[in-house]
Amino acid sequence: MTEPVDKGRAAITAAPVDLLVTRVGELFEQEYGIADTELLQVDYRLAALLPLGGGEAVTTPGHPAWRCFDHQSPTHADGVGYLPVSMRGERRGVLRVTPVTDARLAELAEVATALAHELAAVDAGTDVYRVARRSRRLTLAAEVQWELLPGRSRLRPSFSLAGQLEPAYAVRGDSFDWSDDGQRVWLATINGMGEGVVASMLTTLATCALRNARRAGISLADQASLADQAVYDLHRGEQYLATLLLELDLRTGLLTAVDAGSPRLVLLRDGEVSVQPLEEQFPLGMFEGTNYREQFVQLQRGDRLFMISDGVIEAAGSTERYGQTALDRMLRRTAPMTALDAVRSLLGDLRAFVAGDLTDDAVVVCLDWLGPQPETPPAESVRAAAVDHRADRLPQDRQVSGE
């Protein structure tokens, strides 16, 4: 590691929260003779790169800044360098530096990665970066929903994950959540009924109830039951949520699912699209004391899963709905893309279909299982242990599908 990189990390860590990019620029000027350093943050819609200091947004596909963002690698064009500002798979934007030579990009990229980590660390305590990454004002309901999210993308050796809400600046009741501990990843997509803040507050209650239950270490079915009871206790069945809960064993590919009147689960395997036949159970909060059942799907290495709300299928163009046929075609086209690019492409196609913003909420989450990590035990022995562990708490009629 070079001395300028060490200095860069130290400068970022010591900088006031509003001067992170300024301190990086000062270091780059001192060490590399770079006259201008600008942070371009991706907006809530994943459609524009917005300069932190104001100015013209970068929206043109194929622009070097977008090539850097899309390919997650430093890009050099006409004396200008573009560096990915990303951490743990979460893409925050691009750092634009000028003038610079191609030979320096690798060193500069290390500092850009350090900047991404520091931006994530300070984001909750300042509005500087959040304000600068919106191209227009969020509705109050959308503000609530975005505050709930765990991020928009996540990358580990065994999986890749991405999600997005639409309409990004006016979403109401749709949301998603995820968490992983290195051995498992949990996902939830939520479609809260109602409009505006009423829908967003219902989704907030369900998300926090699900997190509370998950962090108690209980089964997926019990997580659903506890969240169901929390919603019912407050609304007595007058408001409820369609929810899909998943838990993936990253060592074995065994997927556990609870379908509570939920968005659909779609599998992309070897270029073929199939909707997974899950048992649709009552939405969370519809009735008191609902008992939920788990189902199982065995994934194969390289499988891609989409969690897709009805707002995608039901989106209306000038003469027809988007529908399952258009969805299947688009999902097949995403096969060579990263998870985040797959989500962006699907929602971009949807916006083009409706010729503008969606009128109903839509959520898309994409999960790629890349196979067990090399240091984990052999898959068969781990999977056998997982099945044995469940045997004492699962009735015999809970079927494992996809095997």
UniProtKB/TrEMBL annotation:
Keywords: Hydrolase. Residues 386-396 have a biased composition (Basic and acidic residues). This is Phosphatase. Residues 156-369 form the PPM-type phosphatase domain. Residues 375-403 are annotated as: Disordered. GO terms for molecular function: phosphatase activity. InterPro entries: Bact_Sigma-Reg, PPM-type-like_dom_sf, PPM-type_phosphatase-like_dom.
